Amino acid sequence: MYSFRNDYSEGAHPRVLQALIDTNLEQTCGYGLDPRCQTAADLIRRLCRAPDADIHFLVGGTQANLVTVDALLQSYEAVIAASTGHVSVHETGAIEATGHKVCTVDTPDGKLTPALVESVLAGHNGSEHMVSPRLVYVSDTTEIGTIYTKAELTALRCCCDAHGLYLFLDGARLGSALTAEGNGLSLPDLAALTDVFYLGGTKNGALFGEALVINGAVPRSHFRWHMKQRGAILAKGRLLGLQFQALLTDGLYFELARHANQLALRLRDGIAALGYPFPVESSTNQQFPVLPNSVVEHLEAKGYAFEIDRPVDDSHTCIRLVTSWATPEAAVEAFLKDLASCQ
Amino acid sequence: MYSFRNDYSEGAHPRVLQALIDTNLEQTCGYGLDPRCQTAADLIRRLCRAPDADIHFLVGGTQANLVTVDALLQSYEAVIAASTGHVSVHETGAIEATGHKVCTVDTPDGKLTPALVESVLAGHNGSEHMVSPRLVYVSDTTEIGTIYTKAELTALRCCCDAHGLYLFLDGARLGSALTAEGNGLSLPDLAALTDVFYLGGTKNGALFGEALVINGAVPRSHFRWHMKQRGAILAKGRLLGLQFQALLTDGLYFELARHANQLALRLRDGIAALGYPFPVESSTNQQFPVLPNSVVEHLEAKGYAFEIDRPVDDSHTCIRLVTSWATPEAAVEAFLKDLASCQ
Amino acid sequence: MYSFRNDYSEGAHPRVLQALIDTNLEQTCGYGLDPRCQTAADLIRRLCRAPDADIHFLVGGTQANLVTVDALLQSYEAVIAASTGHVSVHETGAIEATGHKVCTVDTPDGKLTPALVESVLAGHNGSEHMVSPRLVYVSDTTEIGTIYTKAELTALRCCCDAHGLYLFLDGARLGSALTAEGNGLSLPDLAALTDVFYLGGTKNGALFGEALVINGAVPRSHFRWHMKQRGAILAKGRLLGLQFQALLTDGLYFELARHANQLALRLRDGIAALGYPFPVESSTNQQFPVLPNSVVEHLEAKGYAFEIDRPVDDSHTCIRLVTSWATPEAAVEAFLKDLASCQ
Amino acid sequence: MYSFRNDYSEGAHPRVLQALIDTNLEQTCGYGLDPRCQTAADLIRRLCRAPDADIHFLVGGTQANLVTVDALLQSYEAVIAASTGHVSVHETGAIEATGHKVCTVDTPDGKLTPALVESVLAGHNGSEHMVSPRLVYVSDTTEIGTIYTKAELTALRCCCDAHGLYLFLDGARLGSALTAEGNGLSLPDLAALTDVFYLGGTKNGALFGEALVINGAVPRSHFRWHMKQRGAILAKGRLLGLQFQALLTDGLYFELARHANQLALRLRDGIAALGYPFPVESSTNQQFPVLPNSVVEHLEAKGYAFEIDRPVDDSHTCIRLVTSWATPEAAVEAFLKDLASCQ
What we know:
Four copies of one chain form a homotetramer.
Chain A: H1 14-22, H2 35-47, E1 54-58, H3 61-72, E2 77-82, H4 86-89, H5 94-97, E3 102-105, H6 114-122, E4 132-139, H7 150-163, E5 166-170, H8 174-178, H9 187-193, E6 196-200, E7 210-214, H10 223-229, H11 238-247, H12 252-273, E8 286-287, E9 290-292, H13 293-301, E10 307-313, E11 316-322, H14 329-341
Parallel strand pairs in A: 2-3, 2-4, 4-5, 5-6
Antiparallel strand pairs in A: 1-7, 6-7, 8-11, 9-11, 10-11
Helix pairs in contact in A: 1-11, 2-11, 12-14
């Protein structure tokens, strides 16, 4: 009946679609140099209180990750990431395909800490026989739905400064993070604390698109060359600027994320009330309950779609439920009712 | 007043937009494995009379080119291309960034011939000290608006067969080629004669998208791995399938291209009638007239936008005029009238 | 007074040098296609009882590793290695620089097992969103001096067969492994059990050189293209063939390795007799004792050179002592005497 | 009876060999950080009057080329080279395998000029849609035996300065160039005029080795990281320093090159005296006479070995004759006598 499989199952928010319709025959130059992209970039700079930031619009997250890493790093420099990090496992070696090693470290909650970063550095002796870890990659929300507090991100920034590292934050689900229970981070904080981060559009109301914000002291001047070389400049770049313009007008971006989070918490609370555990606490739009296998099968038989995160033991499975800007409240309530009926 | 700068200045044809609107809340799985992509792929296989073809949808041309070359070639294998080829000059070394050399050869009309291909092969001795040219890259229409006849493409195919080469046709402007005066090629011809080609959507009525058709005896099984590694799988892949479904229904794709060509020929004939020469004959949607510099400036002052192809001599410039599915007849007529008034 | 820092501190065994002198003015063709290389290759094929093996001579280990991995793997395929593996940590991302991910797994003794290999595979779901682990990289001796038994290598081979993986054995210190206490492997075993392995010359009596043996069902036909592309074909390739010819005549290769091992065991036994522990048991030419820091400083002050493996606690350090074909017995005895005097 | 095929057919000059023998059991640290390499580097800095130059020793030319290009260029930057340049045709795409495009230009005599360099620049518009040509690659001697005059190299330097380009000179046959008739360049000139160049050892008396001199304002600090990543740091680096120490003591390097050149001129004059033409004038150790096919066959039947450069017409072939430090005068005289007897 309903798919909780991910937050990119549907198209775009109606206001985003309407912007495409309204401007369809506007003639602009291509490749993201048009007035729409400039307007959206200005909007983002203002929201980030980062007047000197460079803004680039890319179509998707893997693209944004591989272009950024390749643009910032020299051949012998490497990435530090959580072993659950998207660049570590879910991008088919996209970073390595640009020539860079990803040094991973295990973390229970998907988040990096100064201690974890320093444990990676400690394994590298600074000689020419080893890569030089140079860029710390984090995601907010993380791959398992957790978020960084302001204190945590500030500590990472200090750690990066102390060791001459860049800090890059993958914001594919940034809307969900910034509107979550317990979040203390704002866009200006992100612009101040990271060297590069992005506002994910694909998973929060756009048809597609990630808005990259470069506000740190990193190589910037030829970023568009790196983009083009990787096939990451959209011909009708206007489409990206336009969508972000729509999303960032009147707070739509945050409103949509808040909606997704609220329904996720409704799911969390409803499931917890039925006695099912959550190995990791998430206040964002991904929830990972552990259910008996029979219940999982029952839900699937009812027509619900979701991802299997992993088997927990012989009779239990951790599943992933994802809500989005498009999830109807009724779908959540129906799911909870059906889940209750499994008991 | 009007931009003839390129064929991606506007959005999408209304029927394409409508398809996006109508299906906006359909939930599908991501990454191009959804029913819309399957339907569009089936449609393309039928139009190509190629039931065994693999169809992949990519966002843009540079992406399609770099992924295809990298997927087909081993590290030591190289591309043969015209020195005007898009992969040679206009993609910031995207092919080389995947590790492959592009061996170029000069050609007066933008087209490769068996003799030109063999001249490249003759410069390679088959030893381990040189790359092995393995893939012939052509574009139809070419970068200068010319098209391949069926005889020409058949001759290239024979040449490729004789030398164990792959034939890859960049169809960013394929609609314009297939509907041009003098064209003898059909989609089934292309599927039969090339190993890989694509139907360009970006420049012919879609918001974005290229539909890649792999019908030759090339490595196919892991094409999606190559796509993902290069950031070339769109999360909401459905958007690509849907647009091609709309374009390929009731011949819309060809109708749009025919419109662009007709207006280009109107431009060509009108300009020629005023006595201005065209160094290369084009029957497609790009026209390259040579105008006095004073006329060029006059047109620019009138508000017309177009690309400068190159200075021809101290007082003449070759410009590029591009029409598209969205070009209004009135814009063409106004341009010709303004041009006439320059004399 | 004496350096136990590594096994490449000196030049070549006199018989190797003599071969260079004797043939100095022989004219041969270049790039390893000469009669000396052919003779050495034939010798290796006979010693390996592998008449169909391809033999290639390379200058060094990092070169051999990166060329082999790149020649065997497709872009989306990855290496499985111990987290202590040379390719994982000591080659400045050389594998990643060819575009391939190295998937690492912790192992207490430097060795991979089927269970460890399968734990890596279990983290990959076979989809296009993840790399495909395809090649298992092991070293014999390992980076910490341990060796594979025949049963262990056979089990790895079965595991590789079961999962369609290649098995590649880095033999930079293969001589030491094959002549060690407890070794049950022979060259024919290695040729039969691995897809590719090499006999290290650099660390066992040659000036430089590694002899690569490709005996498995792997892509072979263009290996020399991969070598050339990576700058790994020596102009005077003859020098490599000649050195291996000298080393493999009358068992010199094994005699030299046996010498290194015997002195290493003398060190081990002498150090153990003084009561110092060895965290990992090694029967080969690298020994890793743990000594009080004051003893370490005393030895350094005496003029002994060796590498610091790692601090163990505030007052103890694990050091690495390496012997070679060139280590004189007297140096070992002097070291032990000086060590005894520290107590 | 004698091979004029190349200048790396034999081993090393006796004084080089003797240095290896004399120091065979010296213990040094590895990877080129030893006193021998330091001594040789100091010697080179003095000979070049370049006290601030960085000196690196590499095993071969392809390695030196690919490491240098990759170390100096950013991903989107490209090489400018003659279409006959070694990096363009004879290195199996080694440069492209590091991700960089080689932009080629035809030149009748193997040499680049400011006009040719600027013709390449003129084809690049400085936008993000094209690579940025950044490094000019030249060889001295060139691949066809010609040499740069001081005026020519100075003009190239000015051109590079005017356009912000690096100048890299491949000196695989630099000895031959510097000791040729008509040469006006010295090592200090090379150090002053280029950013990076190398003194080839492989083709001038060493077993192997190229000494790279970095004296320009180029990225230098992590050159050894780039070397290691490409497998281009020799474990027993001492062997490289030692050989260059021997070659650069008492002018041996120049003496050997002079010998090769003298015998080449003897060949040239003797062949010309027999009436055979030379399409390109060379005063260095490669000579390219055009001979009747019957004469070529006769010489081959007599046992002479040489490379076929290319067929000139149905009955004539251009061959390449190469002399070296090891070529005996008697071999040259015998060749000329046998050639005369063909008439």
